[in-house]
Amino acid sequence: MRSGLKAALLSERLEGKEPSEVVKLDPELSELDSLATMLAAVSSFEPLPSSEARERMKDRVMEAQRRVMEGERKREREPARRISVSEPQRLSYATLAVAAVIAAILVVSSVLFTAPGKVAVPPTLGLAEEEAWVFATGMVEVREPGGEWSGEDTPLVVAEGSALRTPPDVRAEIAFGGENLARLDYGSEADILAVNEQGISVRMQAGDGYFRAEKGIPMRVFGGGLEVETAGTVFDLDLGAEDTELLALQNDVQAGVFRGQDEPVRLAQGKMLDLPEQLGEGGLAAQVSDIPPERLQDEWLLWNRTIDGSRGLDTGVMAGVEAQAAQAPGIAQLEAQAPEDNGDNGEDGQNGDAVKPAISLQGAVQQGGVALAWDVKDGTASEFVILRATGREPAFPQDELARVGGGTRGYTDREAKAGMSYTYRVACPHGDGMIYSNAVVVAIPQVKPTITLSGRAVDGGKGMPVIDLDWHVEGELQPDFYALVRAEMNQPPVFPPSGSMLEWRRYPPGPDFYVRDEDLYMGYTYNYRVFAIKGGSIILESNMVSIYVDTTVIMQPPR
């Protein structure tokens, strides 16, 4: 009877009502009562979720309830597990707590991620090992381990070994538990390599990633020729610019440079590392400098600061940045309610006609494609159409490349080929026709294909060494697969492998690949080389890397 009253009290609290009966609560339920009161307050300020979101929320809460009931029945079938008379009651409260917290999370996430035109500000969750939650401002693409890419609604749970890709008009957060998270900008891609008690590993394949690592939890991020190893820091890794950029936004960040530099680089808070594409022999060196003030005004960084600030998290060097008027609309536009479609595709002018928008387009070659960015003056647009042609100005509809939402101001053409020259324009519907931007011609230089292999021995946990290997592919290669071959002692790796040699295969697109070798013996030297294979033949091979394994490779996690 008393349990029923307590459950009813929590239900009334979640609905924002005053309790109909005063009930003395145990400490566990007192905390839940406070949580319910807080959620009721949050719900009163947020827009109601859509009907579809309500159905999803209902289904998930029912599923949580079903799992709780199955657990209760299982315990009833196993009386030997009961230690004392009071334990079943304590377990019942615990399961009620779990169910209430799950329901609370679903309520908040449904409100925040389905309210039209609102910024998706996902909560950071405590999660089980080898899993992560994904939240986004729209549909994302997910590739489960060994599977194919598929479009998915969020929130959802992904397993260790999955990959995530954001469309050009969607941003996402990957919540690993605690304050550990990664956020992906428009048109970005990342592989979730590891989420376990040894730490978190992520590989950035394209775009821009913002990372927050909690103290005591090692986080390693690969991408663009860098390996970032840290804990208790906030940093941004941008592969979208012409050069790879690493920004230390809070506390120190340590980065290993795979190309042309042996010693790791330690960045103090407020510093940035610029890694040119032509790095190493005959090229440029990695540059360390202060983060320019205008870089901190970047809309992507301000967007992340807004989210972290709303959660009460330390924002490091971003804490003292005042958003300029030019950048403020970028965040405000994400938070504002989407404009209603009144049929005029714009605002009303003084004469009652739609205001004609003016589109200004810029384009540049970056790692992974051609980056386009545009500004809109006057009027609004329901959507933008990206146009591309060769040798002439593109026109709608014959040269349509892609479509993005009216709130988007950037797109990356990842299908652009080296050695080609393209002409781009952006258009938007207006009345019975289309409004066009200026034309931008972007020439993509021909790059001689290269494969650069790097590796090092690290502590794999429990005092056992492992070797992490990373290779980066430059230029158009298009092999059937890449073969990483390992030989021992004085043997050079060959393909196909012979004798006791080991082989790992990775498949395009790349351009960055990763393998962890755990089958090691102390006192051995291991030699590695990558071979690009097409039609059974070697079309290109990397440099050889030799690594000696002994007890000196057992390292302490970063502090």
Account of the protein in words:
The chain has a 9-stranded antiparallel sheet with strand order 4-1-6-7-10-13-14-17-18, with no helix packed on it. A 9-stranded mixed sheet has the order 3-2-5-8-9-11-12-15-16, with no helix packed on it. Strands 21, 22, 24, 25 and 26 form a 5-stranded antiparallel sheet that branches. Helices cover about 20% and strands about 35% of the residues. The protein is built from 7 helices and 34 strands. With about 550 residues, it is an alpha+beta fold. It folds into 4 domains: about 1-115, no CATH class; about 130-320, Jelly Rolls (Sandwich), CATH 2.60.120.1440; about 360-445, Immunoglobulin-like, CATH 2.60.40; about 450-555, Immunoglobulin-like (Sandwich), CATH 2.60.40. Residues about 40-50, about 75-90, about 105-130, about 280-285 and about 325-350 have low confidence and may be disordered.
